[in-house]
Amino acid sequence: MELPMVRMAMAFTAMLMLAPRGSPWAGEPQPICRVSTVLDVISLELHKREIYIRIDPNLVWQEPTVDRTVVRCGVCALVATYAMPSFGERPLLTCEQHAFDVHALPNGFVVEFLR
Question: Taking the model in full, what pTM does it have?
Fold first, then answer.
């Protein structure tokens, strides 16, 4: 009787050890450049320059700067070009890279367009 219980306990322990683990802390901080409010400001800034644009959060990257309160965000903005004689009814999506500096303040962020 004891042998099956030991095997079951060992199998259960092995399952726990092999199970994928989530974040050890609830609310673990995400990269500043992927915070929804920062992405909203970046999107608004780019909408001033282009008519049809979408930012894919998976194509956002972040670099540290010399100042510890500032990070450089790189964004791949998907720009839709409608040229029906060349491409037909479907738009041609191109990735345009843009850079922003994001200053972390105690109560939020300041986003500055670089290029």
Answer: 0.62
